[in-house]
Amino acid sequence: MRAEISQLQEAVVSHAVVDQAIGVVVTLGGLRPDEGFQVLREVSQHTNVKLRQVSEQIVDWVHSERLSDEIRAALDKALATVRST
């Protein structure tokens, strides 16, 4: 039972971070929320970094103004792809 509760708590935190990152991407790119999620998913897949970790880095980027070159390049590419469709 404790393991299930722990997993649920982790899922809630993970979901919140992803939602925050979607908000950043939506604002940055002038996108709809579904497009923001698509961008995050593409960044995750192209960098081989888990979606939650990509989301954490993007949310932290807002405050620190630092983002890894790999994530930044993948983010720029994904934004350009979504904007062109």
How would you explain this protein's 3D organization?
- Residues 1-59 form the ANTAR domain.
- One of its GO terms (molecular function) is RNA binding.
- This is ANTAR domain-containing protein.
- Pfam families: ANTAR.
- By secondary structure, the protein is mainly α.
- The chain has one domain.
- It is 85% helix and 0% strand.
- Helix 1 (2-29) packs across helix 2 (33-47) and helix 2 (33-47) packs across helix 4.
Q: How would the blueprint of this fold be written?
A:
Elements lengths: L1 H28 L3 H15 L3 H14 L4 H15 L2
Question: Descriptors for this entry?
Answer:
RNA binding, ANTAR_transcrpt_antiterm_reg, 85 residues, ANTAR domain-containing protein, CheY-like_superfamily, WH-like_DNA-bd_sf, 4 helices
